[in-house]
Amino acid sequence: MTTAPTGAVLLSLDGITHAFGRVRALENASLRVRAGSVHALLGENGAGKTTLMRVVFGLLRAQQGVMRWRGSPITVRSPSEALALGVGMVHQHFTLVPTMTVAENIALGGHGAFDPRRAADRVRDVAEAAGLMLDPQARVQDLPIGAQQRCEIVKALARDVTLLILDEPTAVLAPAEAVELLRWIRGYADAGNAVVLITHKLRDALAVADDITVLHRGRTVLTTAARDTDQARVADAMLGGARAPTTSVASDDVNDRAGAVSGPPVLALSAVTVRDANGVDRVRSATLQVCAGEIVGIGAVEGAGQHELLRVLSGRLTPTSGTRTIPGSVGFVPEDRHRDALMLDAPLFENTALQGAGARHGVIDWNSFRTRTSALLQRFDVRASGADARARTLSGGNQQKLVLGRELEAAREALVVENPSRGLDFVATDAVHQALRAARDAGMAVVVYSSDLDEVVLLADRVFAMHDGALIESVKNRDVLGRAMLSGDAGDAAVALGADG
Questions:
Q1: What residues make up the domain containing 241?
Q2: pLDDT in the model for residue 128
Q3: Which residue(s) pair with 265 in the sheet?
Q4: Exposed, middle or buried by CB within 10 Å (0-12, 13-18, 19+), for 360?
Q5: For 328-373, what is each residue's pLDDT tens digit?
Q6: What is the spatial distance between Cα 179 and Cα 324, in angstroms, rounded to a whole number?
Q7: Of 96, 108, 314, 394, which one's alpha carbon is 20 to 30 angstroms from that of 412?
């Protein structure tokens, strides 16, 4: 497949319009992507970014408008046609087959007989070149979520595409992994390819992109070179001229609570160890107390044991050894809301009923759940047509607010949240953060893990790092916390804090 001259327009979209029933997701949207460039496609949740890229990838057909590839008008009817052109897409929500291995997933859709050795070699070659290491023989369902994201990216790269669409690729990656991926994206574009990067992290977009397009309510409202704009102008365009939330940028003292006093312990672990089915200790002798009226933040690189720790704290996983004390009902918001928190094709009132479903007996009063759901939608500003709407019809931000609201309504003493702002724009993120702080201020014990260290520091009253299953108390400073995560040495944190003044 030939590479277009650097700077030449590889893909152009003009007047793209698409509606779902009476809702116009795209209205006369336009986009120009140049060879050798990274093009950031930005907008708040529901702005039409993913819909526009699904048109490019052949998952949707535009009802109006023209798409051109290398200057020639085209119609892409399927993902296979897009891949044949040289267009690949990595979706925000995974499309992997959980029971298959990494190599088998990446080989899906290929041609000829499946050769396991050849497929494994291909995975190693592509993953190594991208700096996204993967075990070709690992079964996808056994991989942590960050590794599943890497598998999706490698699967697209293995098709030798020249235009790669990445929908929130760093949302579930640890900070070091995200930096490495952004570095790879830059190198991939500099080699003459092109990347369309959908992200809600404005700092990432401005750091790596050559060009920026902003959509607002399905319309293109800003197209500019990255060097000619700044975060404030982009945020203003994303919000249609409205002012951005002030809490969307973290600093080390945003969450200082002078004189704040927390209550008695609500969640407690003493020398807790969690051993997996293969005999590996995922959590090692962890001791922790979380009190009423505080948020405890957890920072960790992928695979450090944080996911197992959160499930122990929420009552979803039983420790192998040690002592755990938790209240009877702990709210839990998992990072993958589609897989672990929602039934996408069920109405919202049935999704509300999922909380506590295992302990419920007798006939279900569905009218009661409809009433409760309607109240929840109003209280947490979940934008949906009503309690009977299907969960799939909600934007990612509204799905997250629904899950968070459901858990807060049921759990009065403790809440455990995993990557609360994954895939959300800063408006939805701000709403989620406000809900978490309100829960804390009402006396709830809250534990938050985020792969975004800025978010951990922004939200938490106390912070801990996890390293190789061990829990280490740290300080509310992004760099110090990051070093503790990587080194596993509490002494490093103390030394770094002194050095920082």
A1: 9-247
A2: 86
A3: 291
A4: exposed
A5: 889 999 988 888 889 999 999 999 998 877 677 788 889 999 999 9
A6: 36
A7: 394
- For 447-486, how does the pLDDT look when each residue is reduced to its tens digit (9 = 90+)? 999 988 889 999 999 999 998 899 999 989 887 887 788 6
- Name the token pair of 77: 């009817």
pLDDT for the residue 214: 94
The total number of structural domains in the chain stands at 3
Same-domain pairing of 266 and 348: no
- Whether residue 310 sits in one domain with residue 383: no
**pLDDT, mean of residues 487-493:** 58
Dist CA 486 CA 377 (whole Å): 40
- Three-state DSSP at 31 gives strand
CA distance 40 to 211: 6
Q: Are strands 219-225 and 330-333 parallel, antiparallel or unpaired?
A: unpaired
Tokens of 217: 């309510």
Check whether residue 286 and residue 180 sit in a common domain: no
CATH number of domain containing 38? 3.40.50.300
Looking at residue 29, its pLDDT comes to 96
Q: DSSP letters of 58-87?
A: TSS--SEEEEEETTEEE---SHHHHHHHTE
pTM, two decimals, is 0.63
Q: Specify the pLDDT at position 238.
A: 82
Contacts of 190 by beta carbon, 8 Å cutoff, 6+ apart: 36
Q: Report how far residue 455's alpha carbon sits from residue 429's, in angstroms, rounded to the nearest whole number.
A: 10
Task: Please give the single-letter amino acid code of residue 385.
Answer: S
Rg of the chain (C-alpha set):
23
DSSP string, 151-220: HHHHHHHTTT-SEEEEESTTTTS-HHHHHHHHHHHHHHHHTT-EEEEE-S-HHHHHHH-SEEEEEETTEE
Query: Angle 93-88-392 (CA atoms, 0-180°, nearest 5)?
Result: 25
pLDDT digits 0-9 by tens, 433-445: 998 999 999 999 9
Tell me the pLDDT tens digit for each residue of 233-261. Answer: 888 888 776 544 544 444 344 455 644 55
Q: Are residues 203 and 311 in the same domain?
A: no
| 3-class SS letters over 427-465 | HHHHHHHHHHHHHHHCCCEEEEECCCHHHHHHHCCEEEE
CB 406 within 8 A of CB 342: no
Calpha distance 67→11 (Å, rounded): 7
